Amino acid sequence: MLNPRVLCLGEILFDFLSDQPGFPYEQVVSWTPYPGGAPANVACALAKLGTSSGFVGCVGEDDLGNILVRLLQETQVNIDGVQRHATAPTRGVYVVRSETGDRAFAGFGNIASSDFADTQLQAAALPVSLFEAAEFLVLGTLEMAYPASHEATLQAIHLAKQFNTKILLDVNWRPVFWDDPAAAPAVIHQLIKQADFLKLSDEEAEWLFETTDPAAIADRVEEVSGVLVTAGEKGCAYWLQGNQGKIPAFQIDVEDTTGAGDSFLAGFLHQLCQQGIPSLQDADVAHTVVHYASAVGAMTTTRPGAIAAQPIAAEVEAFLQLNRT
Fold it and tell me: What is the count of structural domains for the chain?
């Protein structure tokens, strides 16, 4: 498999989705497993859209890990950066859902968050050749909560800078992953300084910058090329190479919002790979890129699961034809 254009570093896991929408964690009686993890979701969505991608992360030498690695292979995601841990288990996350489809993370069962394999990603084992060839590196913040994966993330940033691989940071704030959530903002702000593109939810933007205005955030982040702020059913706002705007959400029937933001990000990166970063200086191109990303995110909410619900490029084009603005 050719070296991928986009590398996605971080966690791959199983989301155990509640079968009883509206029920709290303690009252859920059955769960359905879906492959997930934000960086893995992005990698798979990119591959489905036709942009080559690779996943960099660590899973256990267990059945769940085997299933996830096989899924990456079947989805045509490069796995040269996948590490396996002999004793630490592959992560599972329990997710409860509201009656309207919104999800909330409810914990990790009976295993401590720091005991999962994804926390053991080793910096020294990162394949340098992948970074040398890649155009983009996608990072989240969850790996910064654990010493080994923290170091691996910093090494990945070092390699990206060395080979002029652009960094896209998805804040993806999940306090349940952090032993000390109060320590996270300072760590995340240091990570933000390394990013060429920044994606945040509106809640994350308020939390970290006390504003949801992408232009105001860009003004506070040195040398950033783009800021995307997503707001679910309220749509999204963007600042890209000086162009700013808002995209309303598509009016669709939502079944499950899991992975929608990751698909949005994949749609954005897919367009960037096709159009090129300099094209974002054109206001119409910037609008079109984010409009496409929004369509990919919206389509993912119409089916359950994250990776299972992702569309292929032909489906996105057909959806956009039906939803012309």
Answer: 1
Domain of 316, in residue numbers: 37-58+122-322
Range 206-234 average pLDDT: 95
CA gap 202, 200 in Å, rounded: 6
pLDDT in tens, 147-163: 999 999 999 999 999 99
What pLDDT sits at residue 205?
98
- In one-letter notation, the amino acid at residue 315 is E
Q: Would 47 be classed as within a structural domain?
A: yes
CA-CA distance, 57 to 18, in Å (whole number)? 26
